[in-house]
Each structure stands twice: as structure tokens, then as C-alpha cells.
Please model this.
Amino acid sequence: MLSQSQSLFDPTITRRAVVDAFSKLNPLVQLKNPVMFIVAVGAVLSTMTVLRDVASGTFSGFTLQITLWLWFTVLFANFAEAIAEGRGKAQADTLRKTRSGSTARLLTQYPSLTEHRVVAAELKVGDVVLCEAGDNIPGDGEVIQGIASVNESAITGESAPVIREAGGDRSAVTGGTQVISDCIYVRITSEQGDSFLDRMIALVEGAQRQKTPNEIALSILLAALSIVFLLAVVTLKGFAYYSEIASGLTNSLLSIPVLIALLVCLIPTTIGGLLSAIGISGMDRLIQRNVIATSGRAVEAAGDVDVLLLDKTGTITFGNRMASEFIPANGVDAKRLAEAAQRSSLADETPEGRSIVVLAKELFGIRGHENTEHQTTFIPFTAQTRMSGVDVGIRSIRKGAADAVIKLVESYGSVFPADVKRAVEDIAKTGGTPLVVAEIVENKAVVLGVIHLKDVVKGGIKERFAELRKAGIRTVMITGDNPLTAAAIAAEAGVDDYIAEATPEIKLKRIRDEQAQGHLVAMVGDGTNDAPALAQADVGVAMNSGTQAAREAGNMVDLDNNPTKLLEVVEIGKQLLMTRGSLTTFSIANDVAKYFAIIPAIFATLYATNGTGALSALNIMRLATPESAILSAIIFNALIIVALIPLALRGVAYKPLPASTLLWKNFLLYGVGGIIVPFVGIKLIDMLVVVLHLV
Amino acid sequence: MQTTELLQIALYFGLLIILTPLIGGFMAKIFTGEKTWLTPVLTPVEGFIYKLSGVDDREEMSWKQYACALLVFNLLGFLAVFILMLTQAALPLNPQGVTGTSVLLALNTAVSFMTNTNWQAYSGEAALSYLTQMVGLGVQNFVSAATGIAVMVALARGIARKQGTSVGNFWVDLTRSTLYILLPLSLLLAIILISQGVVQSFGSYVQTTTLEGRSQMIPLGAAASQIAIKQLGTNGGGFFGVNSAHPFENPTPFSNFLQVFSILMLPAALTYTYGKIVGSVKQGWTLFAAMLVVLLIVLGVSLWSETQYNSVLQTAHQMEGKEQRFGVANSMLWGMTTTVASNGSVNAMHDSFSPLAGGMAMLNMMLGEVIFGGVGAGMYGMLMFVVITVFIAGLMVGRTPEYLGKKIEAFEVQMAMVAILAPSAVILIGTMIAVLIPQGLSSLNNQGPHGFSEILYAFTSAAGNNGSAFGGLTVDTPFYNIALSLGMLIGRFGVILPALAIAGSLVGKKYTPPSLGTFPTDKPLFVVLLLAVIGIVGALTFFPALSLGPIVEHLLMNSGKIF
Model:
């Protein structure tokens, strides 16, 4: 249920956000955002001016409108943040429901099975509980005995049950999930309130949200820019005073609300108002894809990653080797080989076995049931014989590794054909696995040929890697295969590099080496032995099905257990940073038009000849009156925040392109666009203001 | 404009582009310790200097040590000039018998020459002895320029070095800049200038009778040697009061060309030096291109403005305040280069420029003196804008920002903004105070927007360490002497210290090798982005102030009103 996507403005969330927008007016909340704090202070000052004017009977509708729009600016920014948080809160509520009021069957004297019913919240680390079919697992823990299928849909949204068993890499269970069959004994590994689910809720809700390093740096920039403009506006009051006297004016050109309007228009309110919404929704986009990041820092790092360590199995290839070809021995009909191979594999439930049956059917139309008319005995694979097969009446079929089959046929006094040997070597050279098929009839062994088993690379993955390469990201394939096999698959999948015969130590060393050269590395892992590498990597995505150790070590958890997700994680990280940069650029570029709206307006009567101020020449937008110009600028400034909320929540479009191409695109869109849009927008609003007689 | 004038401007920029890699490459060799043709001659001298002063030239400094050494050295320079000015009456080489100056003028002048500003609240021929000019001001002209180069080199090292801790040795950088670069070039230039008729003499002033039969005092002095370094070191402080408009300081069109060229020669070449040190000449050329574009724009605007028909003066050939032997084009070329480059020497009076041309001169300084800028100072100032540009635009490619493989993070942004904010604050706050208090206003000779421009120009010139004056403002007053001294100090060290802090922070950072995903900082688009940031963050801040000064004056002039 996490994976359900929400429309950008879900009515419930929007309603809650509107309320939150007002409650966020609390000065302590406002202080966290220096740019918006300045706007809030300005709004307060401006309100005081209005009240003073009312008291002294000099009330002006213009000042009131400016004041209102200043408040709207603050509220719009609050609303943007609230709506981003609201999406997370809605998801947190769903999660919380799974946890409420469950009880636990505590075994105080494990392994003795005396059972006490306790409230789940009272469990401590180290307690052992029993969970049978139908029970909710009361807390995060490790299976210490038994095997069970568990429904984890509460956190993953995936309805297919998963197997959890003692020992190995599938021993971790999560509080709030439900046992569907069998029974397991679970040792609790985390305090209540600090369980995986609790932390997930906190993360999703954004309760513990801390500013990321890049966000802090950007906040500093925005605060510094605000100071620059504050200086420009405050000193302008002094400059104006000199100029008023010089041009013989007796009244002051710059009222407090007008000065504040100018200041608010110049400081980067657009990005200031949307900054936290961008950060929150970046995390949110990960959650929509069922990835939980333990910190915003990790999401940022994902954007910087330039080396991806990818496990071959599951990411690059389908999990298993599959039959791809039948190579008959000289003088043997291919169909005969296929038939024998299929017959020997009918009872073989391994994916390899099944793939042989399927290939025989695809190539020669042989159907399994045609072969089952005789008395058959299946011979399973054992580590000693390293062969499997079938005995059908007097006919025995064996398939297995080449050396095992060689031994077999030689024991019957037959010669292993040279052409088959060559075929075996050729397959091995390309990284495939050769399975030799032999038939024994009446003490005579005949080698029928070779089945070529190979890793099948996932469709589209090569193109995906090529895209990543264009975006400057290198892919490194990790596999336990020998170098030969690894090289062949690496070439087929189009990865940049590979590590064959990888051990956890080699992985860890590779990550350290890459980092020493200045690269940022991302990897996926699930086993306990992956934990050091996950911890070392800049972005470590642990599979939710993995061990507790792995989940603790990584800085993201993929609830779907899909290693390919790493590619999406990188894209989301990049998208987050791009959104921030693009909106900052847009916000700063907006200033050009605002200067040209307000400066001529406030000095409209300065050094006037025949009633027209000299600086009116700068009114290049031909805005109707000074008042309409100032009001239009401040209205534009407030509305643009609202207009950009969807973009902040959704993020700017990302495609893996070289940096220079991306830069041109975003520069034209948000930089040049940022200069042009406010000229058009302010002019249109000005026309509207005049039509509606607002000033 | 005449064809010859256009040709001369083309020759100017052509020569600048040709000499930039030659001189820039030479300077890079000096700072990376490579051999040059001067090495055999000067290495013994260099070694002798270190021996004499007890400097270990192999010792490396952290940014804080580097900054400390720099501050101590500058303080000593300040004290030397300060004391010389107060005591010059009792010291030798004072044939005219000038007296000691006031304490505040000495303070202002000592700060001015230490900070490479060369703001002059005095007239050289009337107020200073030959000794003060040479030992005080002359020496500071060399070492303040060398200080700027040293800071730039330290920053470049901070960027280029991979996970180091030190940014170089201040004493070595200072000595090498002076010994290998500034001294030889000044010597050469001084000799050529003498050949053109610039005076170089220890003799006392000459009294003659003019054709009108009146008595006139003709000042002399060791001018040529000082003028050479004043141009090359972007100092700008004239030997005589009217600077390079004076016929003894700048007698011929050829001497004028040499001097105006010397203003930009080293700042331009340092872009190449920077590229060499950080390992990519293209990076240097990119910054050069950005600077050149701005200079060509402001030069174009000022030339256009100067050649428009002026309805008040009823001419399109405005020669007021300009020297007949230079004409409009050469006065504009000088006026623009001297203000972009934080030089401050003049060959025409900026007060008399058309309002827009005067405004351009101000704008040049308001940009933070980063368009070529002072020797070294222009480059490290420009790099502050580069940091901000990389930070804003770098995010748009989906990576946390990095420049030349170094991550730009909160600390760098903070420091760069301090460096940009400090001079801006001086200009805005200083001008505001001056236009509000009688001590500020009483120095004005003109009113209205022109008076406003005079005050705005003075604080802009101080903050940018430029030193040129708009004129029309009496600045040897307690208020201006103190306020502008403060402005010069903030404008200098408010940029140097953040720049060195960034050098120290970057030098310790991990280096990320470039990939296709890296934000490119050596492409034309980067020039555009950089200029946009300079324009919006640097220039637009002053748009309101400029509107009330030169812009409104220009608009009023067009409707027949002057001030």
C-alpha cells in the first residue's frame, strides 16, 4: 500500500495542508527558513502600518492589498511545505495501523515452550516469541528456529508471501508483518519505538527530517542573497531621501509597505518557499517506488554517484542459467539430443532443468508427456556423481558436467568424441555452462551432444547502461563466476567493468579503491557478508528480504527486493538536485523583471518635468500606474510559488544525458525562462489589476 | 569615431590576446618552480633575500599561516608609509621642503597604498617628498601587487592540489612575484617611458616664466619608475595630482598606449597563469573570455554615449575633461580599463564623462573588480563568483556542485558570499551615510544626481580598491579620510581572507575526476552563466543606486537639464 500513487493534490491531503499552512505561522517554525522569515517580519511590519493608518484615518486600500499579498506569500510557502509533508503523513498513517494493539506470545524460558501473552509494546531486546500461522510478528527480530511463509505486504505492498527461516540470509523478520503458514521462533532485536517500522514511519512522516548538506549550503546562499537585497533596499531609503530633497520633493517616496514589497520581490522567495518541499518530495518519490532512505543525505549522494556496483544475478541477468542451444555430436540428430535432454530433465524442477524442457519444446515441438509412457525412474543430481538423469526401461540417459560424463563413458569402454570436447571448450570459453548428454543402452555408452546453458541478460539492460554511461556513470558487474564467464556476460550486458570471483573482501576493497580515486559508489546487497561493503558504499541499498545486518548497514532499504531499483534511486537523487538548482536559477532570474517593475514605479515623480519623472523611461513594461506596478510585482511573486508547487513535488524531468546537454536544456528553460516569464506575468497581472480597479 | 581610433582599439585587444599566454605562461613557471630564462640571473638574488630574512623557502603554510604572514607583512607596510608621511619634513630627499601631512591623511594614504587602492586625497607634487614617494608609495606599489598575486596563486593551489594541507609559502610567492615579474617589467617600461619624455629626476622643481610673463613652478621627480609599476601593478596612484593626464606623466600617444596596455597586461595574463596552475588552460581562457565580453560591452556603451549628440553642449564631440593629445576614444579606453582593472589611474577626468560613461566606470567597480581586476585580486574575486555560479548552476546537472573536481559546499558558499557582500556593503552603507550627514554633503561641489554620483563613486572606488576619483568631491576631510580608509580595508581583506579560507578548505578536499556527468566549466555556456550571476548578484544590487545617479542624470540631460 505504500506503492499506491497519489494524485498531486489529493483532497484530504490538501485540506490538511491548508490548515497546516496557518499553524506554520508560528515564529519558531518560520525561523528555520531565513528567507520566508524576512517575508513574515515584513508582513507584520506592513500590517502595523495598516493599523496605524486606520487609527489615523489615512487608510489606503493599496497598502492593505500589499499587506495581504505579503501574508499570502508566507502562507503559500507554508502550504507548499505542508502538502509535501502531508503526502508522507498519509502514508505514515497507513503504516501505523498495522502496528496497533498486537499481542505477543512470549517464551520466557526458551527453549522451554511455556508461553505468556503480553502486549507487543512491552517486549525487550533478546526476548524470544513464538509466531504461528495467523499471528502478527510483534517486533523486528531474527528467526532462530523454524521456517515460515510471511506476508510482508504491510510494509512492501507486495502480496506474495516470502519465506523466512532460521540461519542464512533470510532470517530477518519485521514487526507488523504476518505469518501465514508454519511457525517460527523469533528473537527480538530492536526496542519498541525503534523498530524498522517505527523508523520507517518517522522517515515517511518527515518527523526527523534534517537539512541535507546541500540544502544547508543552498540555505546559506539564499540567506546571504537576502542580506544583499536587504542592504540594497535599506540603503535605498537613504538614497531616496537625498534625491527627494535634490529634486525638491516634500513627501517621502518610499513608504514602509512599498519598501517591504520591493525587498520581498527581490529576495529569493520562490526557491526559499519551495526548498523544503523539494527535499521532502524527493524522499517521497523514493517511497513511492518502495525505497526507504534513512536520510536525505543518502538521496543527495545518490545523485552524485558515478560508479554502480551491480550484482550480476537479479540485476543484469535473470537469476538462473537457461538452456540456449543443443549441440549434437557428429552423426547424432539434433532432435534426438533434444529429446534425450528433455526426457532426462522432466523431473528436474530446477530452473535450468525447466529451461531445457522448454527449449526442446520450442525448437523441436517435443512435448513432455509424449515421453512418459514407459516405466521411468529419475536419478537426481548428487554432489558425488555430478550428474542427473533418467532410466526408461533399458535406456539410461545421463546429463552432467563434461568431466563426469567422460568418466562415465570411459567406464563403459567408449571414447568421448573429440567434436563434443571441442564444443564443451567453446561453450566454457564464452562463459556458458556445458551439460553433456549421454545415453547408455545395453552397456554401450553414446555421447549425444552438449546442452549450452547460459546466463540470460535482461532485455533493455544494455541500453540502460549505455544511457548511464552518457550521464557519466560507470557500471561494474559483481559476480562469483570465473573470469571467463564474467567477461562474456559483461560484454553482452555492456557494463564498463566487472569483478569475477567476487568475495565480500574484494567488493569492499573495490569500493575503497574507487572512493580513493574520488568516485562515489552505490551498491546493492542482501547478505550479512555484504554489510561491510554496504556500510562503506556512499549509497548502500539493502534488500528488505536481506539480513538485519545488511539492512542496518545500508542507507536505503528496497522493500521490493529488486536490485534494478538502484538505477531508479540514482535518477531520483539527480532529479532532486536538478529541481533545486533549476528553481534557484528561476528564482534569481526573476529579479531582473521585478527591478524594472518597481524601481521606475517608486521613483515615478522624482526629478519630474511636466509631471513625468525622468526614471519613467525605465518602465519598459509600460505598467499602468506606480501602484499597479508594485502590486502586480508582489502578486506575481506570491502566485509563482503556488504555480511551481507541482513542479517542486514532481521534480523536473530527468533523462540520463551528458551534463552539458542537461545544462543547456535547464538553462534555457529555467534561466532564460526565468527572465522572460515575470515580464509577461507582471504585465498581465497589471492589466488585470487595472481592469478590476484594484488600485 | 575615426578609423584610426577603431584600429587602435583592435590593436589593443589583439595584443592583449597574444601576450596573455606568453606572459601568463611565464608567470605560471615562476610559481610552479620551473626554470625560466631569468632563473640563472635571479636565483642567487632570491636565495640571498631568503638568507637575509631567515625564510625557509621549502616550508609550506596552511591557509591560516599564509593569511597571518600576509596580514603581518601588510601591517608593516602600512606603518612604514604612515610614519614616512608624518616625518618626511625631517628626512632626506625633500628638495621642496614639504612638511609632514596630517595624521588622518597619512592614515588614509597608508591604507590606500597598502591595499593596492591608491586613492589619493592629496596631490603628489604638493604634499609628498621624493623619499615618501619612492620608499613609501613606490615600495607599496610593488608589494601590494605582489600580495594580490600571492593570494591568487594560493587559491589556485588550493583548487589544484589533491587532498593537501598547505597552500604554499607567502614569503616565497611575494618574493617571486616582485623579483621575477614586477621588477623586470617595470624596469623595461620605465626606460621606454623615459624615452618618451616622462621625467625621472631627483632635482628640485624648476621655476620658469611663462609666455604671459607670469612665474610658474614646474614639478619634477622620479616619476617614470613609479608610473611603470603604478600601471603594471594596477595601483594607479599618480606621481602628480592629475595622474596620467599630466604631460610629464604621459606625454605622447605612444606612452599613452603603453600605459593603458600595462593596466590590463598582468591581470589578463594571470587568467592563463591560473589555467596553467590548475592544469587546464581552457579554464583560464574561459574566465578571460567572460572578462573580455564585459569589457567590450562597457567600452561599447561608453563610446556610444560619448559620441551622441549632446543637446546641452550642442556637440557630439565632448572634449571637456579630456586631453587634446588623447581624444575621446583613448580616454574611454583608459577610463574603462582603469575601472575594470582596479587600477585607478586616469588620463581624463571621469567627472566630465557623459553620465552613462561615468555610470559604466562605476558599474565596472561595483561588479567587484573582477573584470580582469587588480593583479591577482581580479582573479581571486572572479573565482568567488565562479564558486557561486558553480553552486547555483551546477545543481542543474543533477550533481552536488563541484569545481575542477572539488566539491563546493556550505563553507565555500558562505565564504564566497562574504567576499561578494563585503565590498557591496561598503558601497551601499558608506554612500547612504554620506548622503545623509552634513560631513558627507559639505564636500560636494555639484548637487542633484551628479553630486550623488560623486559620493557613490568615492565609496565604490574605495571598496573595489580602485583608487580613481570621480572628482568634484573634497575628500581630504576627517569624515572621508576615515570612512574611505575603512572602506578600503574591508574591500581588500574582506575578500582576501575568505578567498584564502576557501583555498584552505578546497585543498583538503577529495578530488573527483571529471566524467560526462560533470558540470563543464570551460564551455561558452559557462561564460554566459557566470556573466548572468555577476550581473544579477553583483550588478543588479546597484541598479537602484545607479538609477538615482548616472541613469537619471543621463535621462535628465537628454531633456536638457544638467547639474
About this structure: The mean pLDDT of chain B is 94.
